[in-house]
Amino acid sequence: MKKIKIGLGMQIIIGLILGIIVGTVFYGNSSVSTYLKPLGDIFINLIKMIVVPIIFSTLVVGVAGGGSGKTVGRLGVKTIVYFELVTTIAIVIGIVAANLFHPGSGINLSSLSASDISSYVKTTNSAKDNSLISMIVNIVPTNVVEAFAKGDLLAVIFFSVMFGLGVSAIGEKGKHVIKLCQGISDAMFWVTNQVMKVAPIGVFGLMGTAVSKFGIHSLIPLGKLTLTIYGTMIFFIFVVLGVICKFIIKVNFISFLRVIKEEILLAFTSASSEAVLPKIIQKMERFGCPKSVVSFVIPTGYSFNLDGSTLYQSIAALFIAQAYGVHLSVGAQIKLVVVLMITSKGMAGVAGASLVVLLATLGSMGIPVAGVAFIAGIDRILDMARTAVNVVGNSLASVVISKWEHVYDDDKGKEYVQEMGSNKNI
């Protein structure tokens, strides 16, 4: 009798469904989260444990193995330009969608159950003075050990690039360091593969906790907002990113999505971009992108290329304005685009960044910030969608920059797609 093998993707779906069922059955029972929450927390902690060592080791190997200050500088400029362009498109599409579908029209906010957002308000008050210039200054760590301990990705990237350039500069002496970092990288990817085996259990815990706390019924009052955000994000993925993939970098978009389908699903169910960062780096290398590009672009994108988050923030801002009856003129909406372009970058790395950015944006536009309380209740559901879009956008960005730098290996990419196609497991 042939043994049926269930792929990781299907295991994650099973964990998702079981989590929803258990959470629904025990909705309102606080003791459920006592048992389920640790499962999700342990999985997320396992991921956070391996992210920084992987970024450091892969970046050092990538930069030292053929990089130079000029090359890294050119790569950095191209990456930031691309990130800014795509996130701006996401913001504009979000505003257009909110104007077309009016998700906030006809909603009486006082009839909805509010969630506590005091923690987000506190974070916003402490972070709102952090300008883009201040954030750039903070990229340079005063204490490398502290940056690694806190998981400050931008500071880790900066130090790793500088260290890699230093290793490259010392020539023959640096080869031992490159070998060491390559060994660390290989070992950490092995650890990643082991961690992924418990992903379905982590997803079960995360979903069970979320559903038992908020309940499926919490979607009903804000159903139009949820449908607008999900529909717009699907449009963004298949139209905007699809066009970039097919016509600009000449890569089959469906084949590309097939390569990262498990990571999209895991990001969606866990609502954590970090949960898939190591595997995305590994897969994009196998897809034909060089290590030096992947190890720089994808971690940087986690702070600067949040397509899903910026799209969500633009729709949510107009939703709250509509719900309160606040009319925003064309000029005001143009100002909203500019404000989101700045705040979404200026608060990179802030805990609960999407709601924090939304609060800061509403405050600057004269829209009642209390409206965020009503979105916070279903933020977990919305976070799942924006996280999945962020992952697709960052994965594609590594291919775009590789093509732009003329270092993408088409043959390697095609071979990997064929290899993925021959694997029938979901």
UniProtKB/TrEMBL annotation:
Which terms does the record give in the GO molecular function aspect? symporter activity
Q: Which GO terms describe its biological process?
A: dicarboxylic acid transport
Q: Which InterPro entries match?
A: Na-dicarboxylate_symporter, Na-dicarboxylate_symporter_CS, Na:dicarbo_symporter_sf
The UniProt keyword set, sorted, is: Cell membrane, Membrane, Symport, Transmembrane, Transmembrane helix, Transport
* Topological relation to the membrane, as annotated: Multi-pass membrane protein
Which SUPFAM superfamilies does the entry link to?
Answer: Proton glutamate symport protein (SSF118215)
Q: Which domain of life is it from?
A: Bacteria
Where is the protein situated, by its record's location annotation? Cell membrane
Q: What is its main location?
A: membrane
Q: What GO cellular component is one of the record's annotations?
A: plasma membrane
Q: Could you tell me what this protein is called?
A: Proton/sodium-glutamate symport protein
This chain's source organism reads: Clostridium felsineum
The beginning of the lineage is: Bacteria, Bacillati, Bacillota, Clostridia, Eubacteriales
